[in-house]
């Protein structure tokens, strides 16, 4: 029997012109759908769909989209309407799945799954409550949005007890925000060309030192990673 996995992940609806999943999410989905022992469903939301629920199969993956308020209304309601809509759906349907995988904490996913009895894993994409601290313009919309998202992160991350982390930085903050949690450290590549190696034969490694390139778009994380102690 296949393992039924529900992802809460940023997969844009086909009506979102030019939208695409972030590289590591899309590539991982493409690898998982090839495995017969995994039955993958992706849950996301969009204000562009006509019906309350849009459900379909595409490219070997089952997709479910919930109709939520437009972005401006979502912000003005402090994300509460969207959280309630997704939470209500999960209360009715989450029991059908063996595992919930939350992709990131910045979109209030832990607030939507809090209280569910289905095993839940969150892969950390970043710690938005830390990012908000280093936004230079204290009056910017970015500062306001990240601060609000950070509040939900701090309130609800303790309800999640299992995490995937990719750096020492996010591992340390996750352990602080969710005391006693279990963290699975996964050095995850960020580009599809690196994931292509998953289906290829491992290359023979030459003896001796090998270079390692670190890159990040977050100045806070990149600088601390490069300048601070690592393991």
UniProtKB/TrEMBL annotation:
Record-level Gene Ontology MF annotations: glycosyltransferase activity
Gene3D superfamilies the record matches: Glycogen Phosphorylase B
Highest taxon of source: Bacteria
Organism this protein belongs to: Hymenobacter coccineus
Glycosyltransferase subfamily 4-like N-terminal domain ranges (all copies): 47-176
UniProt-recorded name of the protein: Glycosyltransferase subfamily 4-like N-terminal domain-containing protein
InterPro entries in the record: Glyco_trans_4-like_N
């Amino acid at each position: 029997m296949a393992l039924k996995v529900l992802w809460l992940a940023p997969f844009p609806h086909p009506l979102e012109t030019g939208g695409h999943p972030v590289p590591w999410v899309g590539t991982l989905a493409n690898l998982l759908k090839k495995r017969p022992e995994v039955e993958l469903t992706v849950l996301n939301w969009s204000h562009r769909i006509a019906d309350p629920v849009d459900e379909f199969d595409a490219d070997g993956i089952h997709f479910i989209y919930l109709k939520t308020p437009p972005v401006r209304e979502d912000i003005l309601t402090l994300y509460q309407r969207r959280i309630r809509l997704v939470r209500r759906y999960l209360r009715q349907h989450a029991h059908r799945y063996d595992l919930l995988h939350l992709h990131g904490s910045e979109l209030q996913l832990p607030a939507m799954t809090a209280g569910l009895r289905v095993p839940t894993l969150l892969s950390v994409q970043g710690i938005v409550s830390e990012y908000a601290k280093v936004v230079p313009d204290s009056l910017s919309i970015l500062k306001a949005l990240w601060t609000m998202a950070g509040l939900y992160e701090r309130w609800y991350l303790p309800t999640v007890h299992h995490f995937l982390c990719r750096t020492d930085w996010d591992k340390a903050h996750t352990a602080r925000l969710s005391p006693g949690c279990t963290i699975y450290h996964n050095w995850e590549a960020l580009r599809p060309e690196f994931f292509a190696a998953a289906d290829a034969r491992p290359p023979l490694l030459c003896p001796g030192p090998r270079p390692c390139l670190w890159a990040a778009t977050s100045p806070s994380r990149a600088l601390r990673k490069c300048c601070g102690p690592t393991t």
